[in-house]
Amino acid sequence: MFVPDSRLTDEELTVAPLAGVDADVRVLGSKSYTNRNIAIAALSGRETTISGALISDDTTYFVNAIESFGHVRATIDHDTNTIHVVPTGQPMRAPAEDIYVGAAGTPMRFLISMAGLAEGTTTITGTARMQERPMGDLLSALAPLGVEAVSVRGDGCPPIRVTGGTFLGGRTLISGAVSSQFTSSLLISSVKAEQDTEITLVDDLVSKPYVEMTLATLAANGIEVHRDGYRQFTVPAGQSYPGGAATVEPDASGMSYFLAAAAILGGRVTIPGIGAGSHQGDVGLVDVLARMGAHTEITDSAVTVKGGPLRGIDVDMEAMPDVVPTLAIVAAFAEGDTHITNIASLRIKECDRIAAVTTELRKMGVTVDEFDDAMTIHGGIPHGAVIDTYDDHRIAMCFAIAGLRTGDVVIKDPGCVAKSFPTFWRTLDSLRETR
User: Whose C-alpha in 36, 92, 420, 425 is 20 to 30 A from the C-alpha of 117?
Assistant: First the structure.
């Protein structure tokens, strides 16, 4: 029986140093793919089983949210990492109570479009930080499709009120400059629109691999989408999601921490179950680590990193912003400077991750230059420090990896990892058990 890690309720956690690592590490399922499959299961009208799912705070909020519309019932099996979604036979209706998604950004954005398919008025809200995150571009894009979606406070941020049951489809424009999740949200819900839906990007799309993940998930469900590169997507009407079985591959963002451990400790880590065919953009961190001097191998079924002398590089991380904090930790131990560019989107994540990483690395004695959309990390010999995590799972996890090398790293609020990786501390323990 699944038992939650008691450390998730601790005020702080001290990471003990590790002399080296030689391990196969199993990480939880992809958060991005789990969220996409939850949305599709909710809209399929058929029984769906999602295996290998990530069961975390974010995905649990999403499961509870889809149930609130009354048209499906969903059960979560923590022991088998399975989500089972079954139609109730009732129509999809707006819930009487607000939908609360905590700090779950992807569910928030997906639910805004999904609420356009539900009869009545749905209000979606979240944490104080979530209520600062911009949604205006998505709200504007829904209007031409027949959906009235507004910011309750008029600032483009949650709470968001959606008047649904009117998702007609048609033509709309969307900005891709803030979040690729806006485009993914429209693509997933447009399958249920009454007429063809044509989505045109008015500018460059950030984080393109995440839209590729959406398109791959749609294709796996037999959904046809016509595209013109990243400029335009058309979803023909009359299609439906088939339900059935879906299997989620390991999370590339989650595996990044353990690959970083191998890089900075000079050891080996292999992640089974994910390989060269993955659409997850964060797999690209493997190539970045190779450029820095690590020895890497990607097969069809596994990813391996072995540490080596590390050197600083210049790298554009626009396509994989979620692993920038992980890269920053590796850069802190590399010889020379690492200049990470095109990362403005990190300013509007669970926290301002550019500022957070800069502040906490400086506590460890690392020189960091901070820019609006970039950072330069001057590699050296970091030392231990007490790390503030800003209620951000990725800050907690990446600095825990630094503690494996330096020792004396204290992570405040270690429970924030439950947002995406509730078994993180146990998985970190496994590096010691395999030596």
Answer: 420
